[in-house]
Amino acid sequence: MLNTKKHIAPKRIISLVPSQTELLYDLGLEEEVIGITKFCIHPNIWYRNKTRVGGVKSIDIKKIIELKPDLIIANKEENVKEQIETLQPHFPVHVTDVSTLAEAYNMIQTIGALTHTEQKAITLINAIKNSFTNIHLSQNEQPKKVCYLIWRNPYMSVGGDTFISNMLHHAGYKNIFDNKKRYPETTLEEINSLQPDYIFLSSEPYPFKEKHIEEIKPKILSKPILVNGEMFTWYGSRLLKSAVYFKKLAEELLNVEG
């Protein structure tokens, strides 16, 4: 991690993480950000106009060197360790590691310090905290059990040490794989044996669609639901929208049950 004290504000920032690219935008760093990945789709104006430096897992080292950044923002999980290590001897690289909502707050504050936008970062953090505090999610005394699927062929879910699992907790659900780590492979048979109330089919990284619900319906005992993966996985400023989304999702599920 870079030292956040006594440094000059960076003027040539490259972001290799979609959720943190959006965070940089919301911190007002339009001029400073000079490069993003092809998966940094928010904000759209940056996606259309900023220089792209490859994908999250396949960054264009040569392009990055040509851009001569004075700060690169990466992530331990989303980026490839060897690629980041190639850059570290040449440029200041800040690698984030976020697996809980609390760690997301710390990350936002750190990015604010690194980019000299501390006050904006603190204001954003407080707004996110208030959104989770002020919206009382509809929950039963016993949280509904959920299987959150991120991949197909093979099916993959999320373990208890992931950011998604932590967000499920904040949304009022119990992750059926919270005793496992990272992203365990699973089968519909195993999912049935664990008896979740719902199976959440995420929009990313695998783009689950309505046709996939129809595909698994005859084989499962739980209710399959399509969910917006960004609300469970983007740990930057998009968190401002997550609590509202969780509230609406809970209301939709109540209507389904009704």
What are the key terms here?
11 strands, four-stranded parallel sheet, alpha/beta, five-stranded parallel sheet, Rossmann fold
Structural notes for this entry:
The protein has 258 residues and is an alpha/beta fold. It has two domains: 13-133, Nitrogenase molybdenum iron protein domain (Rossmann fold, 3-Layer(aba) Sandwich), CATH 3.40.50; 144-257, Nitrogenase molybdenum iron protein domain (Rossmann fold), CATH 3.40.50. Helix content is 41%, strand content 16%. The strands form three sheets. A five-stranded parallel sheet has the order 3-2-1-4-5. Strands 8-6-10-11 form a four-stranded parallel sheet, with helices on both faces. Strands 7-9 form a two-stranded antiparallel ribbon. Helix 9 (210-216) links the parallel strand 10 (198-202) and strand 11 (223-227). Helix 5 (101-114) packs antiparallel against helix 6 and helix 6 (118-134) runs parallel beside helix 11. The chain is globular. It starts with 12 loop residues before the first strand and ends with a helix.
SSE inventory with pairings:
Layout: E1 13-15, H1 18-26, E2 33-36, H2 44-49, E3 51-52, H3 61-67, E4 71-75, H4 81-87, E5 93-96, H5 101-114, H6 118-134, E6 144-149, E7 155-156, H7 163-170, E8 173-175, E9 185-186, H8 188-194, E10 198-202, H9 210-216, E11 223-227, H10 229-233, H11 239-257
Parallel strand pairs: 1-2, 1-4, 2-3, 4-5, 6-8, 6-10, 10-11
Antiparallel strand pairs: 7-9
